[in-house]
Amino acid sequence: MLEVKELRKVYGPLTAVNGISFSLQPGDVFGFIGSNGAGKTTTIRMLATLLEPTSGTATLNGVDILSDPMGIRKMIGYMPDFFGLYDDVKVWEYLDFFATIYSVQKKHRPEVIDNVLELTDLTVKRDAMVQSLSRGMQQRLCLARCLVHDPAMLLLDEPASGLDPRARAELKELITELGRMGKIVIVSSHILPELAGFCNTVGIIERGNILAFGPVEQVVQGLQSTRIIRVRVMSDIDGAAGLSKEQPGVVAVETSGDGEVRIEFGGSIAQQADLLERLVKGGQRVISYQEEQADLEDVFLKLTTGAVQ
Amino acid sequence: MAKVADWMRSNAAVYLDNASSRRDYRAQLRGNRAIILWTVYLLLLIGLGMLNYSASSSRGQVSVVDAQRTLQDFYQTVMAILGAMVILVAPALAATTIVVERERKSLDLVFSAPVKPKSLLVGKMISAYRYTWMLLVLSLPVTAVCVVLGGATWTEVLAAYALLSLHAMLYSAMALAISALSNKPVAALIWTYLSVGAYSLAAGGLTAAAAVPRFMGMSNDEAPFYVALSPLSVVQAAGTHTTIWGVAVPNWILFGIYALFLTRFLLLGAASALSPFNSWETKNLRITGLVSVAVLGYGLAYIVLATTHPSSFSSGGSTTSGKEIDLFCAALIAVLPMLLLVPLPFLTCSGPDGERKFWPNGIFSFKEAIRGTPAGALPYLLMTLAGVTLAVLLACVTALHDTPGLITVGTVVWSLGFWIFCWSLGRLTSVIATELKAARTLHLASLIVLFGLPVPFLFIIDPEQQTPLWSIYPLWPLFSGEQDSSYPRFVMGLALAAIGAIIAYSAEKRRRIKAAVPPVMA
Lengths: 309, 522
Known about the structure:
The complex is a heterodimer.
Chain A: E1 2-11, E2 14-24, E3 29-33, H1 40-47, E4 55-60, E5 63-64, H2 69-75, E6 76-79, H3 91-101, H4 109-119, H5 135-147, E7 153-157, H6 165-180, E8 184-189, H7 192-196, E9 201-206, E10 209-215, H8 216-223, E11 227-233, H9 237-246, E12 250-255, E13 260-265, H10 269-281, E14 286-291, H11 296-303
Parallel strand pairs in A: 3-8, 3-9, 6-7, 7-8
Antiparallel strand pairs in A: 1-2, 1-4, 4-5, 9-10, 11-13, 11-14, 12-13
Helix pairs in contact in A: 3-4, 3-5, 4-5
Chain B: H1 2-15, H2 19-29, H3 33-57, H4 64-95, H5 97-104, H6 106-111, H7 117-138, H8 140-149, H9 154-181, H10 185-215, H11 234-238, E1 241-244, E2 247-250, H12 251-274, H13 280-308, H14 322-335, H15 344-348, H16 366-371, H17 377-400, H18 406-432, H19 436-451, H20 454-461, H21 476-479, H22 487-516
Antiparallel strand pairs in B: 1-2
Helix pairs in contact in B: 2-7, 3-4, 4-7, 4-8, 4-9, 4-10, 7-9, 7-12, 9-10, 9-12, 12-13, 13-14, 13-17, 14-18, 17-18, 18-19, 18-22
């Protein structure tokens, strides 16, 4: 479990991180959202013990980042927003280097290297030179490097920046899999569609302050008093709209030419279920009844002022 | 027992299974680059041997003595070339190793793993040293020819190679320390070669001074150990020894002790630069520095006083007057702490840097002296000064059963004032400059301007040193014609201390005013 307590970093007159606190459980994939310069990288570097907090601290499975940085380093895998690759080594040599510095026993190193290469789908590139890899592959190699010692937490700073859509999709899949493996994954990004798909928890940071934190749905709902329900019916779209208006909790109803009713709904979950029941009992042949997906981008734009870019 | 096992395991990992060293080894030997370089190097050495041989053989019949002298000259030439190679190649191999990693940002990846700076530095040291050593080993066949033909003995060759290896280690450590302190590879290279050049010149001067009696036939194989300080004269130094308590100790062994100590010191400095606040490396560096300066002070004072005073147990020494002893002790107390001038900006300057070890944390704290934060700068300087003074006094008492006089006391006061003044400049520049790096540069520049630049101007204005103009120069009391008197030292010391106190007070006042302004969000 990760517990961040009042973490603060000040550089002279600039407060990069202003006493942030949150906690994460094993298996959480945490999307750390913020504009450039909001304080994401500074927070991640403090958690990676590369930067000393001005005040506050954090603990991972009871180990403190200030009092036992070496203990923390054994439990984390840090992937910065740059590659930091040695360009004169082969892929397996690069992983062997990190396996050695993470004190993986010599006899286990070949097996560990093969495993992480398989996990990151780089087995065929085992003997390739690092500089010959594509950007997406280099990113996956960086992730493989973070995994050689089976860390409890991964700190991924802007992992998908500069990747093409296919490489981005592969990376998403990989991060989701790591979450399923029970690791705490912290992914920072300012590209919101990148995070929406696979994060189960998000935190929005601006000017060093956490503006929102929690499960994605909770954060979105916390900010939106109403939600949008889209209903598609076989015919009589006006009838469906009329029935919907009578249901408690409905704020506004709009219809479109293609047989869809857009309902702005502010009621409870039970009332949402009642609305469907009312439509069906009212003789409407409902094809689909769908709540619109939570939109992180809207939340982000509402919360932040965009002062830091 | 478990702790010993852990210690052995961690050291085995650092020295025998070092990841950095292995990675560099693979990169160094990849492709044909290394083989081609070594082949060219070997061909050059062989070519030199062939040229020398053909020049000798073209002279027709020569006497055995002439033939042997030619071989000895050839051997000396080869070893001088190897010495030059060590000066040029060893620093080049290490100078950019850390700084390139910092620029490539791979250093962050390494330090996000449970790696201590020691492990990284040992790895880098092994990588650079191994390559230079390989070049030395490759030259063995050429020097072996000289042994086979009678130009040198195996003992001389092995001693010379031991000296060259130790020089290579020292130069690599020097380059590595500068690399750890630099931010750009080019700057690291320039600073490395400037430092290596300055050290080599100073070492060459000392070596020459030590070798003069030998060249003039005034002594046999006995020479002070600093005859071995220059890699260009390993042949001359290899056969020499220093007599300590009646035992002839080969100078290459004494140089080995010196080189190992200095290498350790330089690597500790590099490790401290790479370490965070309150690290073991910084504490170790500070304590090592303090103890070393005191031991050096005691050793130098004892050796000189014991071998030059008639009451000492040395039989061949010359008579020394009480005033000369006083002046000698005063000179040691003034000069030895000057070694701190090089790291002074790092000791004294503070700033809003990312690292807590440089944050402004007060004016004076003994606890911080060993931790290495700005509040500990003045206590550390004073502790060093006290250490040297006590060591010199102790040497005087043990060697002569006597104590130095008022000139030494005056010099202690002068030193006190001088270091308070230098420290206060660091405090001032830290307040003036917005960044730590700028504060350090400004501090260094102010030291050069105040203590270096006035000398040529004063010489132009008053070459005879007759007018009182010279008396405003802070270092003047140490070199003036009035050196037999302690009075100017007292006066200058007190004046420097008073000015330093005023500067430090106003700097602190200004810092507090700046700190009181609420932080502005960027």
